[in-house]
C-alpha cells in the first residue's frame, strides 16, 4: 500500500509541475511584443490552398519530381546500407556475447555503448548541417548524415536482439564444444535475424522520411524541389511535389509492412 501511495503522490507532483510549466509558457508567449498570429499571411495561405486545384502536371515537372523521389530513396538506401555494415560488428561486440574474457568484453561493451549513444543522440538533420559546413553540399552529406545516427540506433538494437535470444540453444552449442564467437555466429545471429531484418525495414521507412527532410537544406531530393518551388511561390508545383512525397512514403510503408509481416509470421 505504501508503494502505491508513493506512486500516486509522485504522479500528482509530476502533474502539478507539468501544469505549472504550461501556464508559465502561455504567459511568456502572450507577454511578448510580437503578434501571436500574423494576419498578413492569410492571403498567401488561401492562395496556397487554392493552388491544389491547379497542380503542375506538365511532363517536364513530373520528370523532375520522379527524379527527385528516386534520389531521395537512393540516399536512404545508401545511408542505411553503410550504417548496417558498421553496426553489425559494433552491435555484436557491444552485446557482450562474443568475447569470453570478462575484462576485454566489459571494455568493449562500455566503450562501444558510449559511442553508440553519442552517435544516435544527435538528430540526422543536425549531422547534415554540420557536414554541409565541412564538405559542402554533396550527396555524401545525405548518406553520412543518415548513416552516423543509424549506426548508433541499429548497433543498439542488434546488441539487444543478440542478448535477448533464448539461452538454451546457446548453452547447447557451448556444451558441445563451440566457443563464444561460434555460438554467436551459429546460434544467436540466426535466432535474432528475423527481428533484426524487420527492424531494418522499419528504419528504411524512417530513413526515406529523413532524407526527404534533409533535402530541404539544399541537398538534391524531393524536399529540395519543393523548397525551390515554394521560394518561387509556384504553389501548384509545391502541391505536386508534396503529393509525390506522400505517394513515395505510402508505397514504401506498405512494402515495408508487408515484408515485416512475412518475416514475423
Structural account:
The protein has 10 helices and no strands. It has 265 residues and is mostly helical. It has a single domain, classed as Orthogonal Bundle (MetI-like fold). The chain starts with a helix and ends with a helix.
Q: TL;DR of this structure?
A:
This protein has 265 residues and is an all-alpha fold. Helix content is 81%, strand content 0%.
Question: How is the secondary structure organized here?
Answer:
Blueprint: H1 2-30, H2 42-50, H3 59-94, H4 102-120, H5 124-135, H6 139-163, H7 167-175, H8 180-214, H9 222-231, H10 235-264
Helix pairs in contact: 3-4, 3-6, 3-8, 3-9, 3-10, 4-6, 5-6, 6-8, 7-8, 8-10, 9-10
User: Which spans have pLDDT < 50 for at least 5 consecutive residues?
Assistant: none
Level-1 CATH class name: Mainly Alpha
Structural class: mainly alpha
| Average pLDDT taken over every residue | 82
CATH architecture: Orthogonal Bundle
What is the CATH homologous superfamily assignment?
A: MetI-like
String of helices and strands = HHHHHHHHHH
Describe the sheet with the most strands: none
Q: What count of domains describes the coordinates?
A: 1
How many beta strands in the DSSP annotation? 0
CATH topology: MetI-like fold
Anisotropy-based shape? globular
The number of helices is: 10
Please give the share of residues in helix: over 70%
Amino acid at each position: 500500500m505504501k508503494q502505491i501511495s508513493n506512486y500516486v503522490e509522485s504522479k500528482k507532483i509530476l502533474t502539478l509541475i507539468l501544469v505549472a510549466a504550461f501556464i508559465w509558457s502561455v504567459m511568456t508567449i502572450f507577454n511578448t511584443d510580437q503578434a501571436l498570429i500574423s494576419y498578413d499571411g492569410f492571403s498567401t495561405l488561401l492562395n496556397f490552398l487554392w493552388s491544389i486545384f491547379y497542380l503542375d502536371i506538365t511532363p517536364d515537372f513530373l520528370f523532375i519530381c520522379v527524379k527527385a523521389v528516386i534520389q531521395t530513396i537512393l540516399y536512404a538506401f545508401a545511408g542505411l546500407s553503410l550504417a548496417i555494415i558498421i553496426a553489425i560488428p559494433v552491435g555484436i561486440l557491444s552485446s557482450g556475447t562474443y568475447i569470453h574474457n570478462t575484462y576485454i568484453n566489459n571494455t568493449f561493451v562500455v566503450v562501444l555503448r558510449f559511442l553508440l549513444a553519442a552517435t544516435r543522440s544527435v538528430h540526422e538533420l543536425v549531422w547534415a548541417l554540420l557536414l554541409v559546413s565541412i564538405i559542402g553540399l554533396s550527396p555524401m552529406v545525405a548518406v553520412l548524415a543518415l548513416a552516423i545516427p543509424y549506426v548508433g540506433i541499429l548497433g543498439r538494437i542488434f546488441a539487444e536482439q543478440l542478448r535477448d535470444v533464448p539461452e538454451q540453444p546457446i548453452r547447447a552449442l557451448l556444451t558441445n564444444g563451440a566457443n563464444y564467437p561460434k555460438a554467436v555466429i551459429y546460434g544467436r545471429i540466426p535466432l535474432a535475424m528475423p527481428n533484426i531484418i524487420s527492424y531494418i525495414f522499419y528504419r528504411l521507412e524512417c530513413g526515406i522520411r529523413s532524407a526527404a527532410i534533409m533535402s530541404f537544406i539544399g541537398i538534391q531530393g524531393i524536399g529540395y524541389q519543393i523548397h525551390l518551388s515554394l521560394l518561387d511561390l509556384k504553389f501548384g508545383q509545391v502541391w505536386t511535389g508534396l503529393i509525390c512525397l506522400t505517394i513515395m512514403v505510402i508505397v514504401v510503408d506498405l512494402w515495408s509492412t508487408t515484408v515485416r509481416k512475412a518475416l514475423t509470421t
